[in-house]
Each structure stands twice: as structure tokens, then as C-alpha cells.
Amino acid sequence: MAWFLPSAFFSVSESETVTINIPTDSSVQDIANILNDKNIISSTFGYRIYAFIDKNANHALPGEYEIIPGNSYRQIARQLSLGPKREEITLRFIEGETLDDWQASLVAFNVSATSIKALVGDTRISLSYSKGLEERYEFLRDLPSGSSLEGYLFPDTYRVWKDQLPLGIVLKQLNEFSNKTQGFAEQATSQGRTLHEVVILASIIEKEGRNSEERRQIARIFLNRLKIGMRLQSDATVNYVTGHGRARPTLEDLEFASPYNTYQNIGLPPGPICNPSKDALDAALNPADNDYYFYLHDDAGNIYYGHNAEEHKLNRWKAYGE
After folding, report:
1. How many helices (H) does the chain have, and how many strands (E)?
2. CB-facing half-sphere around the CA of 291: CA atoms within 13 A
3. Residue 87: what pLDDT?
4. Judgement on whether residues 144 and 235 belong to the same structural domain of the protein
5. Angle CA 292–198–98, to nearest 5
């Protein structure tokens, strides 16, 4: 027992910590092997013997730990029984950011891109979000097959446990979307639209409008176009699939073949192109009253509205001299 007692109850600690990960349902033997492989303990057999006299060694919680090599078995067993220290992080999501932007924020915290895609999906490749979310959120049940959560991850600042990513942040954002859009589905239905159509339109005007009034005016312009079967011709939808983000897409961009290219296709795109703000959602649901069919911004951000192609042509000359 002379070799066992010092390791069991006395520390000869080093200054540097070592990171270990305890998988779910690990046995005492598994834990002893992990500790030994990381040179935190010198004897797997000794740790297993200690487990007979300290129940903490048999109740290790899964997770990531920082452990000091040379700590006694008693100290290690107690630390593992208390569970990993949880790190709370702050994530800020801006109105108009895409699901790709959102994913990049999580990957920066070492969240697996594969686990993210499996949870939130990607409409562009017909990869659906996790259908288990529909049990909590009724508004997801009416989304078309192959839809992602683009448009529904409400932009705001959130605090979440790092070890709960990505599901923890998704649930918080879906809860916030639900809270911010109370009654929207019923109002959309009364207008002959679906909530999903409202969210798609809101995502486009989030990108196209610079302020609340512009968004309401542009929302009506798009609805005017949809009513007569006119293409939306939104630069933002083209940028979504090309990834270029140009203020004025090139001719090559406009020829990009995609159901999201509203220069080529009539109607709304298959899904939202970003996560819109409450302001954009309100504008899509309560647009201004106008009879415009055209608009454009000049390089200084001024907006010009036109009733017809001739007025639009004149506005282009005013804005760009062309």
C-alpha cells in the first residue's frame, strides 16, 4: 500500500493543466486509461483500486476538463464528479446576416460544421433542418420540403453555454422568432399569404431597404410585381447565390442559373436569403400604399421610385448618368 496512498490522497502537482474529454457512459477503467494516456496519473490499476473506496470516482460526468497532472486520485475523482466547468459565451447576430454568416460564428467556437448543417439545413442543396424541431415550433411545420432555418434564426445578442452549441443557440433564436411574430401567421393568412412567404419577402427587403420607410415602400413594389407576374429582379437574391455581394451585380451574375435568381424566375425564391429584422418582417406584412413598380439607389444611398420603365430609365440617368 506504500505506493498507493501517496497517489490516492496527496498531490505532487505541476503548474500546467492538461485537457481531457470524458465521453458519455465512460467506465472507471475508461477514465483511468484516459488519465494515464495523458500522463495525469501513473497507474490505471491504482485509480481503479481507489474507486472502491470513493464513490466519486464512479460518478464522473461527461465533458471537457482541465486537470493538473500529479493531483491526487481524490482531487481528480471529485473534479470529475462535479462535472466540467461550463463556459458561457455571448453571440451577436446582425439583421440581414445569412445562415453562412451564422455558421461561421459558431465554427469560430470549434462547433462542427457537419453538426450545424444537420441541425439547420441548407435550402440551396435541399438539405432540411432537423425535423425534431417541429415538435416545439408549429411555424416550422408548414415549411416546404428541403427548407433550412434561414430566415427563422432571429437576429439579436444571446448568451448561451458553449457546450450547448449548436442546439442551444438555435432554440433561443427560434424562441425569439416565435415571440416577435405572435399573430403574424394569422395576419398573413387573412391577406392570402403564408408566414413563410412573408419571411421570404422580409429577407429580401432587409437587404434592399436602408430604413423602415424604404422597406415598406419596397415591400409594396415587390407585391405589386408579384400581383402581375413581373419578375422581382432583386440584386440581393442574385448576391445570395453568387456570394459576391455587389451593389450592382454584373451581367454574368445576372445570368447565374438558380431558382434564387429573381432576374430569371418569376415569383419569390424558394426560401429566405437572410435572417431579417423585426422591422423588415413588419414591412413585409404591412407594406406602404403605392403604385410603383421600380426603384433604385444611387451611390450615395438615395432612393428613386418609378411607376413604369420610362420613369425607371430616367431615374437611372439621375442616379448614374446612364
Report:
1. 14, 6
2. 2
3. 83
4. no
5. 100
